[in-house]
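Narrative of activities, Objective 1.

The group set out to show that a structural description can be obtained from nothing but a protein's sequence at a throughput compatible with the screening campaign. Below is one input-output pair from the validation batch, recorded exactly as produced.
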Amino acid sequence: MSNKLRAPTRGVIIGRFMPPHLGHRYLVGFAREFVQHLTVLVCTRKDEPIPGRLRYEWMQAMFCDVEIIHVTEEIPEANRNNPNSYRIWAEFIRKIIPDPIDYVFASEQYGFKLASELAAEFVPVDPGRNNFPVSATEIRKNPFTSWAYLPNLVKPYFARRVVCISQQVGVPGVDSHPARGLTRLYSTVCVSDALERWMTLREKPNSADEIRLVLKSQAAATAALLPLCNRVLFAEADCVTLQARLAREDVSTPEGTAPANLYILHYDSTLSEGFRRYLDTLTRIFEERKFTYLVTTEHDPHKDPRVVSTIDQLFVVEEE
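Output recorded for this entry:
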């Protein structure tokens, strides 16, 4: 072993990373410090709940200085019940990595047998999971109870989005920011209304190009804040509601824009007739597109038990 430590060394990690978590980050970081050349095999199947391509892209983005290889070939005969599975896996790995492998890194028992078949040494990293007591299986069962162990890059995949719609921007004496109380209640972050940001420094957008910029701004703010949210991201508007407010059907929404998990429509006695018509329009849109929405007359939606209960239900995950 002493000769290996002085010579250029190569190591390998194999896993599904479904999803990657901080324990995986530590595993790869440990191995990267241990060897000169590290290869991580992201092994995926078509029938798995989290798309394999996405997991591969996550690992690539997290470890830019490590060789990440996406393995999509399925090897049924290499299942754990086959006593020759480790030999089959070793032969498969040699096809991908023809150079001699010095070390296999893992935190589980399989590392010993796989390393033996590869004529390598096994280096256990954290078998007790002392620093990051979590597993990908636990995260899939409920990512929200293991939120602290998710890398920011992975959080948008699981995060919930709630859009709160209230009185029009600029109406005197009316609180037009109902999402802020909910943001404090759930200790998270909030996407402000892009149209309000725009009109603070410019006139109301009229041209199709200006409206596209407003919609793109809303989508960009959402994408930038999702990795930083605590389980749920609140917003004062999204691209769907902005486009309805601007009444421009000829303007397409930015690519990748998805509806929120929940829309909260805030009615109260101070509503102008124009805004009431706008909320009625949104209701029709939501019902046509089968979006989930909730109506509240509570001035502070975070004080409405129905609102809080409905949001809490977003964190209930059904068993696979």
